[in-house]
Amino acid sequence: MTYSEKMASGVESAFGCSLKEACKNCASHSDVCTSMDVSRKLQDAGMRITRQRVELAQLLFGNGDRHFTADALYDEAMGYKIPVSLATVYNTLQQFVSAGLIRKLGIEGQRSWYDTNISEHHHLFFEDENYIDDIDDASISIGKLPAVPEGMVISRVEIVVRLKRQGT
């Protein structure tokens, strides 16, 4: 069944499940979404529910925490035949960041990376593989922090350890 046929038949998700069910007990795409109520997650964040937001959220939150770029999410959506433009992916990610659902990471200047784990934690960036992984917080020790200007407070400390293969 094509995406258009699914929409015409009343199925509200490209994955074949109803948004009202929010993928509860869905086995048709268990690699993509779990029984997590994605619609409720968006509603709880104060977001209006749209087909594209729900389908992108299913990709993002359905299989544990992950690091990704907008281009990678777009490619994944295309693989699942979700009709979404790259601009919509970028806009949706910015809305998810503003709503506190994901974090935007300052890894590379030219490319934005995102993280579904919004807790405070640190990262390893593997430059040769263009890959990000979390650092176990117990392995990081932050010593003395710099003095901050008057009227300012430190809101968060983020460490990114950049790695590359020896000899490159």
TrEMBL record:
- Molecular function GO terms recorded: DNA-binding transcription factor activity; transcription cis-regulatory region binding; zinc ion binding
Its Gene Ontology cellular component terms are:
cytoplasm
One Pfam family per UniProt: FUR
Keywords noted in UniProt? Cytoplasm, DNA-binding, Metal-binding, Repressor, Transcription, Transcription regulation, Zinc
Where is it predominantly found? Answer: cytoplasm
Q: Which residues form a coiled coil?
A: none
The Gene Ontology biological process annotation of the record reads: negative regulation of DNA-templated transcription; regulation of secondary metabolite biosynthetic process
Cited InterPro entries? FUR (IPR002481), WH-like_DNA-bd_sf (IPR036388), WH_DNA-bd_sf (IPR036390)
Query: Where located?
Result: Cytoplasm
- Superkingdom field: Bacteria
Query: Know the name of this protein?
Result: Ferric uptake regulation protein
What species does this protein belong to? Hyphomicrobium denitrificans (strain ATCC 51888 / DSM 1869 / NCIMB 11706 / TK 0415)
Upper lineage is:
Bacteria, Pseudomonadati, Pseudomonadota, Alphaproteobacteria, Hyphomicrobiales
